[in-house]
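Feature request, filed as a ticket because there's no other form

It would be nice if the structure record came with a short human-readable summary line next to the tokens. Right now we just get the raw output. Example of a typical job, pasted below so the devs can see what we mean:
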Amino acid sequence: MDKKIRLKYVIIILILCIVPQCFIAMKQYPLLVGDDMGVISLPAFLAGRQWDDIWRTVAFYGGGYHILLTPLFILTNNPLIIYRGVLLSYVLLEAVIAIIAFYILRHYYQCDEVYASVLSILCSYFTYTKPTYVSNEIVLLLGLWLVILIILKLIEYGEEKRKKQLLSILLCFISSYLITIHLRSSALLIAIVFTIITYYLYKKKSLVSPIVSAVCFPLLYFAAQKFNNIVQSTIWITDGITEINNSNIIDGAENIVKLFNVQYWHAWAAIFLGQLSTVSIMSIGMLCPVFIWSLVFLYKMIRKQELRTKKNMSTAVIIILMSASIIITLGGQSITWLDHAYDSIQMGAYNSNDNPNINFARVFTYLRYFSFYTNPLLIIGLVNLKGNTKKNKKIMKWGIALYCFLQVLWFLLVFPYICNIRSVADVYIPFSIENYGIGYAGSKVYLPAIILCTAFFLLIVLLYHRKKSLMGLVILCIFVIYQYTYYGIVHENPWWDRGDGSYNLMRTYINELPFDHIYVPYEAMAYEFQFLFNDISVNISLPDNDVEEAVIFTNLYPIEGERYWTNFENQGYQSIKIDDNEYVFIKGEKYVQWFSKILEMQQ
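Raw output as currently delivered:
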């Protein structure tokens, strides 16, 4: 009977995780920037795509997972099927994450089925990088939960030699494999080593099998690095290019010396405050009491011998592993992005969407690097805060104080430098009174989001105080799912407008195109065009002045009309308006006649 009940909840979790996310994934149109193209470069290359000009400009983003999707790129040339197929694979991974979380909550925390189910669904949706575009973060999150599960099993079977050896091998394999997904997982590797050492110092015995780990890990890590080197040398190293963006985890390490310069202290502190405040908004404030609970829990574990049970040791190990990962990742980012933060602060209130260096301000709200480590921490923290004890009431009060402290410091030290930038407010916009897009942010974006999140944070805390923690958890889950859905429907799809007219035109007449080479001088649009049209060579640069025939697609004209039209007109180009924001510049009588004929037929 117990197995049937458990199966019923597993099915409910799968339905609530897979069906809505599949619906959102199937509504997506290809949205590719340099990161996305870097992620799918390996399967595209293995499927025979010739995207040489594109590959010279994108960063390295591993390939350990997406190489498995190569058959999808081979079986079809339809970009919509490929793109949505990749997104659907992420949906399945998120469902697996939810089931792993459910198992851990039931097996190690004896959490009741309903509460564990809601927490598991929350776990599936609580991600900064949503699977509405191509990325590595969902794969990394699954790897993280697998690492946690293996470590919990190592604690459970610590006295059984054979199982301990097998689990140690599995931990070495998963940890090394994550290096092929993204070099960012190096922080997790360091955190795992730190956790193993801490466990040994605390318990006076090894968490893993020392000999097996000492033999397996170097071999597997070497194999992972070899895989990355082969991918880089095969796809990226062409025409004398020897340096690849994102292939070195210590880029920007020279900024360490700047931390001794008082002029950089504000920028350095603002990175931490900005990101910690933003992730608290993303969690509707609940990460703050979870953080307080973590500190209290570890302190009591150190002080009181009687608390050192297997269950508590499992919880302590998760806290240490996640905390170490967060500190290493956020600390590293604060160093490598220090110049961006400093420059953004120097721009002051003039920092806006019109500034060519607007990307610098991302460092204050960009949670992509460390936020997925908060996912397990939030789930484990919430299950431990379930009881309405006097201790938990105090923790909630301290959590409110920490949340308010972060928001006040954020308002004083960060807000003045991002207040005019809407494109870095992606966490705040779902809770604001403005839609996502280009334009000024100001108080209509940030302040309503903070006020709304604060109100519901206090409501959830009140429900916890009144022994209605399940209701509070459901509210939190609804808000997180709302964020996820907002990104999938409101946030991402409007960006398809930047190239949809050109795509529809060329796709309709794909078999009649008189050219096999186009120029797209805007990188984001060029990446999208190359993905959409596999057999056409896309060049990101502008053509040489002496070319006799050329086709240039752009959505920058007439925004930058003087720069484009004046120069091209003098060189013999004609412009044709495709839709409200897209133009094509054509040189060569044959091309001009073809475009004119096609556009006449469409009118």
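Something like this underneath would help us a lot:
Strands lie at 517-519, 537-539, 550-554, 574-577, 583-587.
The first strand starts at residue 517 and ends at 519.
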